[in-house]
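Researcher: I'd like a structural prediction for the single chain below. Treat it as a standalone chain; there are no partners to consider.
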Amino acid sequence: MNILDYINDLELAVGRSLRLDCPECKGSKTFTASNVGGELLWNCYKAGCNIKGRTKLRMTADDIVMKLNKLNKSDPIIRAPITEFIRPNFITYDKPIELVQWCGQWGIDPDHVMYDIRDHRVVFQVFSDGMLVDAAGRAISHRLPKWKRYNDSGLPYHKGSGKVAVLVEDCISAYVVGGDDRVGVALLGTSLSELHTVFLSRFDKVIVALDPDALPKTLQIAGKLRSCIPEVRVLRLSDDLKYGKTTDLNELERLIWN
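Model: Treating it as a single chain, here is the predicted structure.
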């Protein structure tokens, strides 16, 4: 069977997903196919079946109208165009010794962050296609709230490169796990938005690794992502990834490479 012909015959509209019996291994309801923004993605999650893939579609005029209508009815954060974040004067590239020391505790290069003078926060920058579009600040002191978002882009903080994403809760964890062969992606919370899903759909594999006390949310998010991403794995942590526990990091490496 030509799997691409099979997927095309489903005639999936933009934003639609189907769960079906696998045409290859015949597994019951183990095969998913999705149309995410004009890109077809398919995957069978039955053990031993390696059917998965993605391909771009030429969107019809009706598809484009449908997508725009859907976005216009969605959250304003998703609807609004993503524009450059103009750094306010109280966010600076100058770092006090307290920030440098705080960064040292987590293995963060101080040159990769900024400093909020007003709220005494370390500020992680959110980029889109090389443009600064948002920022997230983490209090160095006991100031509440602990985390603060400076713009409404809705995009996650991310660090690293490659086709594997490791989905975590906060920027520190994303920074710690990001590297040359994986991208740390911070939800900045435990809720998965439509914009998060669109961002993650560019990866071949996503490993969901939220904090141990968020396991139910981890499983829920993984279930949602499986409808539009070829491979989704769950990392059951014994501690937050940013603490670098050896058993957790070893299991992460295994999931990335297997």
